[in-house]
Amino acid sequence: MNFMDLFQGIGTLVEHFQTAPVIAFGRLALIVLGVLLVYLGNKRVLEPLIMVPMGFGMVAINAGMMFSFAINLDGNPRNTLDLTNIMINTGADDAAAASTTGLMNIMQIDFLQPIYTLTFSNGLIACLVFMGIGVITDISPVLKYPFTSMLIALFAELGTILTFPIAIAMGFGPGEAASAAIIGTADGPMVLFASLRLAPDLFVPLTIIAYLYLSICYGVYPFLVKLLVPKHLRAQAIALQKKDQATISPKAKLMFDIIACTVLCLLFPVAAPLFLSFFLGNGIKEILVKNYTELLEKVFLYTATFFLGLLLGILCDANTLLGNEKVLKLLILGFAALLLAAVGGIIGGYVVYMINKKKFNPTIGVAGVSCIPTTAKVAQHAVTEANKSAFVLQYALGASVCGVITSAILTGIYVTVVLPLL
Amino acid sequence: MGVGEAFSLAGQVYVLGFAIALGMAALIKLINYVIRRSEEKAAAAKDEEGGAA
């Protein structure tokens, strides 16, 4: 018995070392990265809900080449879960795929194939995550401070705007450039949704980079805040106003949800699934139907997040990532987009500080980068470090929720404007 | 697409986004106003009812 045939994971690795050493080293590096993601997720340095399943998936695909029928040694990247590849490798024909039973038989060859085809490749998983985000989001701070929150969030879109021409200058097409720019929204589901429409060939690396880079919000933003906001301004407390103590009624929040959903769907039908998902989730929270709230929060959100992480990990095979020369450029663009977003947000914080005659804490600006509630926590943490009695979380949450809304609006505009150019 | 054209397109996207987002903020102000007015009316009606009784 041949050793390599018996232990096929090692066999393909040895084969890769002989035929495509870059891929072989890439596989080893991605295994290490997968282990690192699980470790950092466990330590809570990174978000464990996404990073732990992603790390496990990354390790498994690169160690075992689970979907070995899709191993591609000719250097051309291909999506390992692509139905066409599976059909080719299993000998299934179009007639088999045309019938529901035949299609399901083909899909069940691989245990994750149905989830990929039915939820991932059509963007449904992004919408499920968005419903979950909607149901856990309290929009009261937005209704209390609408202009302040919206203004900060708009400045925090600097990354989404400036990355587009930078990406074009780096040789990307309009669809790819817009998808890369949307990484600046710091919203994973948004990147997944937009890239599936604008850059389907790059949606795997784009979404992986978007999720991996969310760790920038945890790791890099606190240093950026310290760099751009002097300590005496970070320590500034905001005087309590009457509206800070006001309670926003569920009726007002529900009214906003339904009107905003109608207006945005009317303006950007292509992004209607995103708007519908977010505002439906938030509306359900406000109508106080416990069963629906639990369904969206405990079932939809966690199931979707788990499979999103796992599938992104599985899609991180060395062929997909290293076989594509655009990935390195995307890594640079993603980093630039998120950095510019935070800088823009802090500029927005300073603008509101000036408008309010220096009675505002500009640190709150960083919360305009959506990534709710991480950036709001980063802002509050930076303020607490400078002044233990200063409390800015309400304002920061308002900016963060508006960040989600402005991100969805800009994504809708990008998809609407760029799609006809493709 | 050239870089200049890309800048122009990104600028248009931003201006449009800015207008819509600020429009939404104005919408929120309007909703707050309508809700506050209806609550005040309801409170006034309740007071009147209490007075009549």
What does this structure look like?
The complex is a heterodimer of chains A (422) and B (53). Chain A starts with a helix and ends with a helix. Chain A contains 26 helices and no strands. In chain A, 73% of the residues lie in helices and 0% in strands. Chain A is globular and about 80 Å long. Chain B is rod-shaped and about 75 Å long. Chain B contains one helix and no strands. Chain B has one helix spanning 3-52. The longest helix of chain B is centred in the middle third of the chain and has 50 residues, at 3-52. Chain B is 94% helix and 0% strand. By secondary structure, chain B is mostly helical. At the A-B interface, α11, α12, α13, α20 and α26 of A face α1 of B.
Output the keywords.
heterodimer, A: mainly alpha, B: 53 residues, mainly alpha, 0% strand
First-last Cα distance of chain A: 53 Å
Uncertain segments of chain A of ≥5 residues (pLDDT<50)? 67-80
The total of beta strands of chain A comes to 0
Largest sheet: number of strands, sense, barrel closure of chain B: none
Query: Taking all residues together, what is the mean pLDDT of chain B?
Result: 86
Helix coverage percent of chain A:
over 70%
Category from helices, strands and their pairing of chain A: mainly alpha
Overall average pLDDT of chain A: 83
Question: Percentage of helical residues of chain B?
Answer: over 70%
Indicate the overall shape of chain A: globular
Question: For the CA atoms, what is the radius of gyration of chain A?
Answer: 23 Å
| Secondary structural class of chain B | mainly alpha
How would you spell out the order of helices and strands of chain A?
HHHHHHHHHHHHHHHHHHHHHHHHHH
Biggest pleated-sheet summary of chain A: none
Number of helices of chain B: 1
N-end to C-end Cα span of chain B: 75 Å
Assess the beta-strand content of chain A as a share of residues.
under 5%
What's the tally of helices of chain A?
26
The proportion of residues in beta strands of chain B is under 5%
Radius of gyration of chain B: 23 Å
